[in-house]
Amino acid sequence: MIKEKDVLEEVKEKEQKNSLSRRKFLLSTGALTAGLLATGGIIGCASKGVSVATTGGSSGVPWKYEKLDVDLVRKRGYEGYYKFGCCYGAAEALLITLKETSGGQWGSIPVDMFKYGAGGAYSWGTLCGALNGSLAVINLATEKHAELGNELIGWYTEFPFPSAKHESYCKIPKQITTISKSPLCHVSVSTWAAKADAKINEPLKKDRCAKVTGDTAAHAAELLNQALAGKFTAVYKVPEEFKHCMQCHQGEKSLRDDQQGKMNCLLCHDDHPAKG
Length: 276
What we know:
The chain is mainly alpha-helical. The protein folds into three domains: about 5-40; about 70-230, no CATH class; about 245-275, no CATH class. It contains eight helices and two strands. Strands 1-2 form a two-stranded antiparallel ribbon. Helix 4 runs antiparallel to helix 5 (about 145-160). It is globular. Residues about 25-30 and about 30-60 have low confidence and may be disordered.
């Protein structure tokens, strides 16, 4: 006859064995996970519904990169525009070049995600897609993304687009240039179209925007190279023509603190202080 004491001892022994097995499993999988995280090995789990950081830090960025070939980025940006527009073209130019030169996570981003940005996001004419795509990459590449991003946008508003650096391979050379005074697609395109007497949906305008895409991605590459070398210095300054507007309306220390933005106010608003 089985004694109660013997049964209790047998149950206790089984529980101890199960506990040891669970502990070994957790320790082994924990070590594996830690090893993969340390080497950046857990990539692609998101497709299975698992979210994990791939590198050090809570967000995993910035990602390491090597010096970029600016002219190559410019040409790729021009070519990329003809695939899916300005945002896609700029992002693809930078990401493909970074993947080739730097490897790592730079090959993990699906470039198709940038298709939405064409024409200022689904042709709404908001932030120029060339800026949009370039800023996304800058954000991944450096902790100084705010400084570089601000510089890129400011540069864009004062640069005479398109540059002549596409002449050897572009479809339509020697195009008219204009300065948009704005980062908005609507303003940039309409300003140029008015001066060039061009239609928005004709080849002349498309080639212009392809060049803008290449020029913007190329300048983003230049800024990233400067940051990598520790030589980045902001050049853009708010033009005097509307600086006084910001002093009065923008920022915690301004007189009114009732507006947000850094664009040229006079494109849409009267300069009321100048009125007698």
